[in-house]
Amino acid sequence: MFSRTKLGFRPEDLEERIGENRYSITSQLLAIRRQLGETTLLAEIAANDERMSSPKLALQDGAMRLSLLEGSGIDQKLRDAFTKRHLQVLDRFQSLATPVASYVSRPRSDDVVRALQVWKQEYGFSGLNQDSAPAEFSNVYDRDIFGQSLSNFGDRSAVFCSSWRTSRDEYKQHRIHFFYLRAGDEIARVDLPEWVATDPSMLDFVQATVADQIHKGMGYPVALTEAHEQAVVRAGDRRYFWALLEQLMAEAGLWLDESAKAGAKN
Fold this sequence. Notes:
Elements: E1 15-18, E2 21-24, H1 27-48, E3 58-61, H2 76-96, E4 100-104, H3 111-123, H4 142-149, E5 160-161, H5 165-170, E6 176-183, E7 186-193, H6 194-197, H7 200-216, H8 222-231, H9 235-251, H10 260-265
Parallel strand pairs: 3-4
Antiparallel strand pairs: 1-2, 4-7, 5-6, 6-7
């Protein structure tokens, strides 16, 4: 277990360059950089760490889609560049024949619910048990539906295809799919690319491995718990960082300004 940190302070670290265009790094772009950085490192580990024998699963925390790309203020050239980087990393996983998946605890997705809404508008629920058919869909998530149908630990739903527009239009064999999994007291969502979702042996392996991780972690994948522990910035680390920063700035003839409130806390 290890963590790899990176401190960005040079001018080139504080902007994203796409051709001749330069974009200042915002918290939104920084979060996308972090997600892509984690995925890239995961692929490097899968390719080069000889301590891990096959078969192996590359497991991430959170949704696989780069959801922040859909936010306001993202230029199309930036969207295209980040999407290209994501696809290149997924290409690498596919070339390694290493399945990659993302685990979402307590998901707030409603893809299946919206599909049911369309079904109800078109056909009604005449073919279903009327007692179990939901009358309204407001404030209903997919997990509410599968919480009723997935009763045994490790059970999964059918595999669905993401309605994320970028995935549908540009991801091709990497188009994001997902299934829901009974993870003890909660229903979790597992995202995976199409080439994993359509391979029965890989799909079974992802389901079994994630369920095993949840069992070992008593409700949450133990590998992700350990990863969170490695990523924690503790108070001592934070104090050391600020002391080092003050030293470097003083050597450069710069003054680190802080608010009166922050000074009082320190």
